[in-house]
Amino acid sequence: MLVGLSGYLAGYNGSFEFKSGEKYPEELNYTFMRAFNAFFGAVTIPLAYYTARELNLKRPAVWFVTLMVLCENSYTTISRFILLDSMLLCFTFTTVLCWARFHRLQKQSFSPEWFAWLALTGVSIGCVCSVKWVGAFCTAMVGLYTIEDLWNKFGDTKMPPVRLEMQDPPSYRHDRNAGAHQQRDGAGTDDRAHIGRCMPVFRRADDQRRRRHRNGQERAHHSRLKPGGRGNELVELRGHEPGAMSAFMMSPARSASKASSAPATGLTTVVRSATAICRVASRSIARSNSSL
Q1: pTM over 0.70
Q2: Measured in Å, how far apart are the chain's first and last C-alpha atoms?
Q3: 274 or 9, which is more confident
Q4: Which of 83, 98, 151, 247 is 20 to 30 A from 218 in CA distance terms?
């Protein structure tokens, strides 16, 4: 298409077939068509310079690479013909330049410049493959680089892990909060089955863990309030002698009166414990006197 564009600009009417050995007709401006193709060959020289700089070569190496491209006779000869090779070389150079610049921006991933050079690399690959099928080797080169780069990133343990988190829609959050209020107030049916179907897997495990921890704390709280069961409070005291045990049991009536009164303070607890210890000590002394 680019060669056709040059022919259109040169006034080519499509009658000449460009056979080898034939003279160009006078109405065909082949000089302009050759200059159009030579332009793509001339562009390869600054592209080679900037590519060597992006590859982080030293200054003498950069100038040496540029002079090698400038003084290459095959490039000079093939660029002045009305062929596709000059365009193939130009787009090959642009592919390598964009790829090298994209490689330099690894530490600035997902920045606007990073996306721009990534897009330019894809456009250059498309152009070089559109000129000739030989350009598919550029696609293979960039593909091998991508495989190696992904392999190095997957094996790099210093990279922080990426954690994906899904946000619940507003309707789901409303239903979830309503179900939590119903469970707290003791009203309504259990809606955990519906929540389990909607909740993501990684959040479901956290919620179950929190629920088990909360239930365990509630059971421990109730066991501390009623250790004796059936509304009675039981205080067990172990003596110095093995097997010596006594208990102080409060009656249900006393428990009811205690529940109706104000909560016991720390001083009341100490007094009750001291009273129980005195009773244990008196019983132990009475038993020892009776044995004597």
Answers
A1: no
A2: 124
A3: 9
A4: 247
